[in-house]
Amino acid sequence: MCASHTPLLHDGIADDRTKAAVKDGFRQIAQRARDFAPDLIVQFAPDHFNGFFYDLMPSFCVGLAANSVGDWDTHAGPLPVPEELSRSLVEALLHSGVDVAMSYRMIVDHGFVQIWEEMFGVPLALPAPIIPIFVNCAAAPLPTYARARALGEAVGAWALTTGKRVLFAASGGLSHDPPTPDVGTAQETVRERLISGHNPSREVMEARKTFVLEAGLAASKGLPPCQPLNPEWDHEVIELILRGDLRAFDTFDTKEVRRLAGRGANELLPWVAALAAQSQAGAYSANLDFYQAIDGWIAGMTMMSARAAAAHISETTHA
Length: 319
What we know:
This protein has one domain (2-318): LigB-like (Protocatechuate 4,5-dioxygenase, Chain B, 3-Layer(aba) Sandwich), CATH 3.40.830.10. The chain is 38% helix and 18% strand. The protein contains 9 helices and 12 strands. Strands 1, 2, 3, 6, 8, 9, 10, 11 and 12 form a 9-stranded mixed sheet that branches. The protein has a 3-stranded mixed sheet with strand order 5-4-7. A hairpin with a 4-residue loop joins strand 10 (284-294) and strand 11.
């Protein structure tokens, strides 16, 4: 299961028809998750300089415990992370040659939490325990798409050994250009926040929120600082996923993705990882559950789901 998130979901510019369609899309994928009835969720998602900073920025990190920071109308609090299973996953990944970091105090933001609250309608509602896997999508240099695929394949191989019904989830994208500053060009105070912005003051949080809201308003009018969405690129990505052609993403260059589809478009990396995890159960059948490019939300909002095509394995893994 892969779905977009956006900080402007509640306060950004969109008409009532669009908002209703997005809610319906989340209802659809929520029902798919309920129908699957997972024992475990493994979620790949980014961070937006709320939990991970340039003082120590891993490409990938597995949470053995995690707390939501509660940004953008999401709720703060702990996630139900199964510590022993998470540790087992870390060990399996290291043995498979994927060098992940691990954290007993992972901080996650709306990039992880928002989709669940939109799907199930109550704070931090999850249909099963969750293992969060952070994928660096914002702090260049980024991991390659080939490494994201390798991460996902290793996670999927581990999942098949657990005997559990595992739901793989990803959040982010598609074309998406939030006004994220660049550490190489930012003013000194902003640069310091990108490097070590742990525990920001309420004033700093409010200033960030105001800046993004203003950018969203400008985007709804076709004005900078955000570049226009790229529905053509979005549909190229969607088509590759529908075809199950995950190795095609190995040719994607993160700098080129940013140029074509925005600063947040490399949130496609978690999608590739989740679908690669799913692929370890065999060929999958994918569905496009929702798509709309919403300028005022600075997001090509997309929701997709996939399930193993072979009947004998379709009940063990789901994405």
